[in-house]
Amino acid sequence: MIDIKLLRESPEQFYDASKARGFDGKYLDEFFKLDKDWRDNLKVINELKHAKNIQSSLISELIKKHDSPESAKNQVREINSKIDSLEESQKLIEKERERIARMIPNLLHESVPVCMGDENSVVVRSWGTAGVCVDDVNYFKEATADSGQFQIIPKRPASHVDLIQELNLADLERASKTAGSRFYYLKNRLVKLELALVNYAVDFLSERGFSIVEPPFMLTYRAMEGATDMETFKDTLYKIEGEDLYLVSTSEHPIASMFLDETMEENDLPVRMAGVSPCFRREAGAHGKDTKGIFRVHQFTKIEQFVFCKPEDSWDFLEELLKNAEDIYRSLNIPYRVVNICSGDLGNLAAKKYDIEAWFPSQGKFREVVSASNDTDYQARSLNVKYRTKEGNRFVHTLNSTAIATTRTLVAIMENFQTRDESGFAVPEALIPYTGFDFISK
RNA sequence: GCUGGGAUAGCCUAGCCUGGUAGGGCGCAGGUCUGGAAAACCUGUUCUCUUAGUAGAUCGGGAGUUCAAAUCUCCCUCCCAGCGCCA
């Protein structure tokens, strides 16, 4: 959530940020109207309570002096009925103000490109030598701002959908029978390769100072609401029937909410954590997109980087998280580009976001595999996570970034390391110590 | 799941039986003192409000009784111990 005090003090920057994100400022107008009502109401309530407290101590004195307190009692009863009705309407105002305040997006970092639509996001750099089919060369050049290295390949490799069925690496039909579309039974060496990716990412991040966390895979509404933007995302979450529990859609959320309502010590910051968890996503609204295979699924495993830090350090940490993720993809030898996501395509929490998009030669496209965001104090405020300084308690800054989302990375490997004859694919060298084999074929 | 004991400010703790301004300690910050420090003493330590007060709120959460609830009643959550069940 945004800083309400800051919003009252300098509303202009919030109007600017909203405009850049493609919202009109109506909900801000609405907020200010409700906030004024709330404050006016509060003033009256506090005055009444003050009068009540005076009468109350008067009663206590009268009783001590053996005088009759009846008239004072009646006065308190009268005041109480006024307070009751005012507080009732105050509650309604507060609830609505809260609902609107939670919709107000974070301010933007100055380096975020201001525009609508993901095609306008700025390509920061590209890496690796991509295998590009003749038909895709123009797209590739454009998508890398003409700076991408590539090698012409005679035709697009087999799609991962065909390959996993051909090589007996997954059973999609039976998963759709037992669980529905967008589920999968992974099989055989693909399971080992997935476990290798998990272990590789865990080791990689351990060596870079992250502690490893396997969080709860479900969260209460309170924790989930603090960690994410429920207004936008509640339709994408699975709810456990009859319980106040939601399946996590990323370990970002259980890790962010780990310190809910806590005050951390300044010396304990920064905290770097690597979360390992399954991610459950309803993918509502994604009908027709990537319907086949394991590219977009309801359940996958992800290793996530998360940082709690002091406000003055968070922009450096965004670069650190991006570098870690890039280094992982470089070590796997998967070509990619880095994109600075433009204002119209940012989530409400993020002040700035980089995506890493891997090259998928059989789709002839760059597709998102990593998303690294600085949420500044926005998430920490909703979760009430502070740290102690000599000048008082301040909200921490939080950042998150994918390290490896297994299914998409598996697809990237299958497509980029495929043999010309489509009979199999190589295991990236960095993973061989984890798999114990260097090739997957029939 | 059952029985019992708990939850008070960053931490520890008193108050609860018997309703009437939440007290103390530690830690931290500032001050007095000092050449400097320690000790001692003093002040402060959570949240809200643009009339910043002789203001309001706050004792795990919610509801109730009452003029008044940390305190009494009911419901819920979590923690601890014992018992039960269990991969």
Task: Give the class from helix and strand content and strand pairing.
Answer: alpha+beta
* CATH superfamily (homologous) name of the largest domain: Bira Bifunctional Protein, Domain 2
Radius of gyration: 27 Å
Q: Number of helix segments?
A: 15
The termini sit apart by 52 Å
What's the CATH topology label of the largest domain?
Answer: BirA Bifunctional Protein, domain 2
Q: Give the helix level as a range of percent.
A: 40-55%
| Largest sheet descriptor | 8 strands, mixed
Explain briefly what this protein structure is.
The chain has 442 residues and is an alpha+beta fold. The protein is 42% helix and 22% strand. The mean pLDDT is 91.
Describe this structure in words.
The protein has two domains: 100 residues, Helix Hairpins; 324 residues, Bira Bifunctional Protein, Domain 2 (BirA Bifunctional Protein, domain 2), CATH 3.30.930.10. It has 442 residues and is α+β, with helices and mostly antiparallel strands. The strands form six sheets. Strands 1-12-13-14-17-11-10-6 form an eight-stranded mixed sheet. It is 42% helix and 22% strand. It binds one RNA strand of 87 nucleotides through helix 3 and helix 4.
